[in-house]
Amino acid sequence: MPTPLIDPWHLGFVLWDMLDAEALFGLPAFADHDRAGAGAMIETATKLAEDVFLPSYRLLDDHEPGIENGRVVLPAEIEQSLTAFRDAGFSGMSARAADGGLGLPRAVANAAFLQFQAANISIANYAMLTASAAELLAHHGTPEQKARYMAPMLEGRFHGTMALSEPHAGSSLGDITTAARLLPDGRYAIRGTKMWISGGEHDMGDNIVHLMLARIEGAPAGVRGISLFIVPRKRLDSEGRPSVWNNVALAGLNHKMGQRGTVNTVLNVGEGGDTIGEIIGAPGQGLACMFTMMNEARIGVAMGAVAHASAGYRISLEYARERRQGRHPDAKDPASPQVPLVAHADVRRMLLQQKAAAEGGVALTLYLSKLADLKAAAPGEAARRDAGLLLDFLTPVFKAWVSEECLAANDHAMQVLGGAGYTSDFPLEQHYRDNRLNPIHEGTNGIQSIDLAGRKAVMAEGRALDLFLSRLAETASAASGVTRLQSMAKRLVEMGTAMRTSFDRMAETTRTVGARAALARAHDVMELVGSATFAWIWLEQARVALAGKGTASEPERLRREGLVLTCQDVFSRVVPRADAAAARIVGEAPASLAIDDVMLG
Amino acid sequence: MPTPLIDPWHLGFVLWDMLDAEALFGLPAFADHDRAGAGAMIETATKLAEDVFLPSYRLLDDHEPGIENGRVVLPAEIEQSLTAFRDAGFSGMSARAADGGLGLPRAVANAAFLQFQAANISIANYAMLTASAAELLAHHGTPEQKARYMAPMLEGRFHGTMALSEPHAGSSLGDITTAARLLPDGRYAIRGTKMWISGGEHDMGDNIVHLMLARIEGAPAGVRGISLFIVPRKRLDSEGRPSVWNNVALAGLNHKMGQRGTVNTVLNVGEGGDTIGEIIGAPGQGLACMFTMMNEARIGVAMGAVAHASAGYRISLEYARERRQGRHPDAKDPASPQVPLVAHADVRRMLLQQKAAAEGGVALTLYLSKLADLKAAAPGEAARRDAGLLLDFLTPVFKAWVSEECLAANDHAMQVLGGAGYTSDFPLEQHYRDNRLNPIHEGTNGIQSIDLAGRKAVMAEGRALDLFLSRLAETASAASGVTRLQSMAKRLVEMGTAMRTSFDRMAETTRTVGARAALARAHDVMELVGSATFAWIWLEQARVALAGKGTASEPERLRREGLVLTCQDVFSRVVPRADAAAARIVGEAPASLAIDDVMLG
Questions:
Q1: Which of B330, B555, B559 lies nearest to residue A516, judging by beta carbons?
Q2: Are the beta carbons of B446 and A415 separated by less than 8 Å?
Q3: In chain B, N or C terminus with fewer CB closer than 10 Å?
Q4: What angle do helix axes A106-119 and A286-322 make, rounded to 10 degrees?
Q5: Cα-based torsion angle of the residue sequence A234, A235, A237, A238 in order, rounded to the nearest 10 degrees
Q6: Is 90 exceeded by the pLDDT of residue A203?
Q7: DSSP string spanning A495-537?
């Protein structure tokens, strides 16, 4: 019986065949590694995910974290799993060797990490947050901060959180009020309330390092007045050992529909005693620094959605193969045996959408991861800058469009099972609930759309968009020489043209009518760019699959043919979505602009 | 604070203004009633739903039915609510007076019933199943069966269930194996296992009447060998009083993601003692008789989805009005006050989709209900037949397309609240979970699509389709004279043409390639017809809203304008969906036909 993990064959296809991740080991930054070692790391992850993370998936849903005597109590399986994760060397696997990490390319590390997310997202979240917090400190921390706070994270001893939101300020971070008062020793006393803090309080490991946004007394209103602080749960002594409690008080837990093993907290800081924080970066640069972690987390969230889609796909495919129900419409004999669900075209339709979401999601995960590797380590500043721009451009698309397509995949997975999928006899209903968080957290998908339409499309004088359109053109050009892909290549070119036209119109609307009117189409922009991104990554997969089909073994030939057919399915579904979005962007003002509150009812 | 119930203004608009339900009271069947009485009934329902049904909505989710000493234990609030429902006269409200019912038009009864579904679906389900079972008996029962089983249902003393599925036969009812053996007295001994039986066992009321499909010994394989039986939980004595237990044994409960207050059971019948059943209708006519109840239940299920969409819309609209977050993109001063969520265009986009689903769903509910009234009571056989055909045609569309649009509405409702919507602090996550059942039960949406594409489109030599296209043409024609509606009227005409072309192509594909190839497009057919149905009901609403706008009061003028703008939003979203589906139907074979199991991974 297949586990709900990412299909190793496809993972390898994307990593080595499509993305040629092996070339990364030729870069000085990754020269300590090679393909064999990377493959072994992914295999170890797969086994650990299955053996250690997976078994408690349901248990963590049934046993939500609680509070006993003022302390958060988590099921023991969480710490046991994280300890195994650490002991197997996965903490800090993608952090630079110079920082005490393993220095693996992100593409390899994320291939491995997807398996933990597919097996048990609630546990993986703790590791994801810690790795992202460490990454922030690697970029913005002082050498002393890196030694005292980041190093123990990479060793898996300290946990990290991102402490941004407040009860009255979620999407609108510029409105936070948590206050920081400068102390004579250069540190700060922090006071306020933080909301929605995942992993915000527990007894695991030696410490929790909150990366917390606050406003230094006298700072200007808005985002320019926000600074970033290291706020440990326990203060460190001069040797870096956790010592006294830092007055980060648990004010309550949020009870979620899913991902319940990841404790979500309300924290009061600086009440009844000082909470001491150290500033990271310069005063007023808090949000800019924080974006290092937020972008990491946005990719991590989308990866979680991909992992859920993958898990749901494996489970529903297995069920569809085993469960016999009904006959083909042309089978006249009611006494003939029933056929497996997978034989029905409408069931295959639902499996294909899932395959597209899961495997398209994996391909984008690793493509974006490779961009992160090139941003960090490509030879030449221009190459690094371009990789970074493209990564910035695609991050909101991956977070928003892909997370929704992957949620739809879990919806289909449940539907394949029918009533059984709606019960706790199968994990699909949990995947569906767990996955529903992904369009919400780390910046709602509405925020991602505004980021894409209002910022990413125009940054660097539009160079990110240019780069993206060049990638599409390259794939379309290569595919146009392959008979079976010609018509899809043509559609991809048309999507590129539609994007250019749409962004021009967005700029014109902003100039002539205003940002409000333009950004009322932000969702359509996301729909257009997301559809095009998905079509592109699938055409690229189909192209590479066909290119290697001739010399492949028979089982592999069939898998490659499956990728080509899935690509056809993707185009039949997303090209019309792109067309519709493009038409709305250049069309009349949407009703959402015209309708008044009072007209809504 | 608004309750999560259906908006009374809109309900009245649809019922009296758009559908002219008042005319129904001119028909002999409904002559005992009038608009004032009907309005009072709906008001009473609204109040009872809010005061009695609503308060236990969360409680029933937290306290799933359990088994104690072999008996199902339900929270007391369920029976208390059903008793209040009965005492207020809602049991049998739409059953004919001659049968002991109240004889209200279905359009009025369902307007009232939506409120109970919006308040607490898990309780409303029991009433819905009982009313549907009574309807079946009204059509197919003998006078004695009606007196002994139906009458107590209409009095709210007996509960009804539909006992169709078996562990190995869910969607494929032709494969059931539950056996019926003829006894000397003309009754039957039934033996087998029934699965997914909602309300299958509990201690509420005086009895449970299972309407059960079984196969008489020696009957042919497939659906033609299926007969229908009344199988009471307790056998009735000669006076009609429940007496000894009928050996319908509880074999287990299904634990669902939502609608948890509606106990869902596995039942063993005829084990360790005889289970006695009475046949309804003729042997081998079981499925045909059962369709009376199944069609009722399919409409009931879609109404449940509409009720959830309505509830979610009210809750998220209220939240969007109260919660202040962020500023408009053109607001430069970060110290300016935050605006309410409802002021953001992207939030209004999500509210508009919900308004469209909820109010379009209400309009379709009442339109279909009126068709049921005309089918039963219109003067002239042809009018009754046509109403029946149109109702048959639209039932799968309402069940499948609308239930998915309404689930999407709950998804948007949650998204409007962000993280808060994902927690149990608000009922949205429960509505989302509850509503997810509707695309599954009473025939999965895949089954509905096959029903529409393979059966409804061609029945009565295509007359149902002709009737539907005529309705579209009438609305388009009327709207084409209204400036603001002209372009939408044109699009509706185009959709009608696309439907005709698509169904012709389906017939041709069936003829030349085969049913399997044609029905691989069943989902596209549903997408096309559903989109057109939704566009049509919205254009009809917009047309009627504008027609009455001139003489309306200012608040009503704004509400009517809101309907027109919502209609514009609907067209911008669903016309492209219809276009895409129509293109796929006439386009190349879908990938789902070409892909082999082994290519899936």
A1: B330
A2: yes
A3: N
A4: 60
A5: 140
A6: yes
A7: HHHHHHHHHHHHHHHHHHT-HHHHHTTHHHHHHHHHHHHHHHH
Shortest Cα distance from A26 to chain B (angstroms)?
Answer: 32
Q: Do A352 and B595 touch (CB under 8 A)?
A: yes
B-interface mutation test, from A314, A349, A405, most B Cβ less than 10 A away: A349
β-bridge pairing B226-232 and B275-280:
antiparallel
Q: Where are the alpha helices (DSSP H) in B249-344?
A: 286-322
Query: Residue A382 class from Cβ within 10 Å (0-12 exposed, 13-18 middle, 19+ buried)?
Result: exposed
CB contact under 8 A, B440 and A415: yes
Q: C-alpha distances in angstroms, A459 versus A290, A394, A471, A510?
A: 19, 13, 18, 15
Q: Which residues contact residue A103 at a Cβ distance below 8 angstroms, ignoring those fewer than 6 apart? A: A29, A30, A32, A33, A94, A95, A96, A97
Contacts of B352 in chain A (CB under 8 A): 591-592, 595, 600
CA distance A515 to chain B (A): 6
The 10 Å Cβ neighbour count of residue A347 is 24
Phi-psi region of A69 (alpha: psi -120 to 50; beta: other; left: phi over 0): left
A494 annotated active-site:
no
Selection from A339, A345, A346, A347 nearest residue A322 by Cα: A339
Which run of H or of E encompasses B193? strand B188-198
Q: Are B122 and B261 in contact (CB under 8 A)?
A: yes
- Residue of A81, A166, A96, A98 whose CA lies nearest to A131: A96
A296, A404, A442, A527: which is the annotated catalytic residue?
Answer: A442
Closest CA to A500 of A532, A523, A535: A532
Q: How far is CA A114 from the centre of its chain?
A: 10
> For residue B106, what is the enclosing H or E element?
helix B106-119
Closest chain A residue to the Cα of B561, Cα to Cα: A599
pLDDT tens by residue, B451-504: 999 999 999 999 999 999 999 999 999 999 999 999 999 999 999 999 999 999
Count of CB atoms situated within 10 Å of the CB of A294:
19
Residues of chain B numbered 287-316 and touching chain A (CB < 8 Å): 313
CA A43 to chain B, closest CA, distance in angstroms equals 18
Q: What is the pLDDT of residues A50-97, one digit of tens each?
A: 999 999 999 999 999 999 998 999 999 999 999 999 999 999 999 999
ipTM: 0.97
- The amino acid at residue B340 is P
Chain A hits for B558, CB-CB cut-off 8 Å, are 596, 598-599
Q: Which residues pair with A198 in a beta bridge?
A: A264
